[in-house]
Here is the input.
Amino acid sequence: MDIAEQIRQLEEEIKRTPYNKATEHHIGRLKAKLARLKEEAEKQRKKTGGQTFSIKKEGDATVVLVGFPSVGKSTLLNTLTGAKSEVGSYDFTTLKPVPGMLEYKGARIQIIDVPGLVEGASKGRGRGKEVISAIRTADMILIVTDVFNIHHIDILKKELYEGGIRLDQTPPDVVIKKKERGGIKITSTVPLSIDEQTIMEILREYRIHNADVLIREDITIERLIDAILGNRVYIPSLTVVNKIDLMEVEIPEGAIPVSAEKRINLDLLVEKIYKKLDFIRIYLKPPGSKPDYNEPLIMRRGAKVEDVCRRLHRDMVENFKYARVWGKSVKFKGQRVGLDHVLEDEDILTIYSR
Here is the structure.
């Protein structure tokens, strides 16, 4: 029996099995085995080669437009950035990633239109695996549908999830330290909904028989598997419903109604993209000089001094001595910090190098 058939049978068994405390261990083991087989299938696919999509990231952040064919992604890209993505009334007009650059509040936001996804994309339909692989590198995902296809939103989210993309989530707060002997020791700082036996079954499915496991959240089976695999990506997202000038529909909560062609609500969309990317401004101060307040360095929240060094010059980390910071991230003005210091919005930074 090949891997594809094993995956199909496991999916059917999970659907047939009612979920309750009595079946939790069994379902946990099945889901772990299913995730493992999907990983093996993906590794086999990559070994066979084939055409792939790649995204060359530029600017301060990269936003990828994700949607079914013919929902207006190309028009939206062109309108927001002045790019020249081909627009057509037929499916699969965009056959490769098309970039554009949006400049807003000092930030350069790269927006990329990728080939349309379809149902079954995560299993390879319509070259979906290659497209999803490229999407995984994004800093943010813009899910785009239109007023005629609101149901696409849930389908797209499911395909992205199956492709290892976790929208608007943080990584599981789980630490697994493997060891040579001593069995599995589970420690939790919060009450858990799943019991230790289920956790042990899932770990053993991945041949983890000796480990210290620290859990700091009420973990689900799926998030525990994500923690074990360690290859999921966690990307913020916004949902856009296009073509609102053509028909009145009920817009899902949280979605942004726009018309790319008529330029309706595009200012609102741009502002929400900017806020969702959670930028911070860093003012660079050369040694012995005043800070440059006119052109701040735009970084993402959580950026460290090391990230700034890498942005400025590839050799700056290697030649780094120390830095001084004025602002909200330090206790006193001009505090001396190292590469791992986390910066805050409007910090002033001086870097000293060898």
Remarks:
- The chain has a mean pLDDT of 89.
- DSSP finds nine helices and 16 strands in the chain.
- The first strand starts at residue 61 and ends at 66.
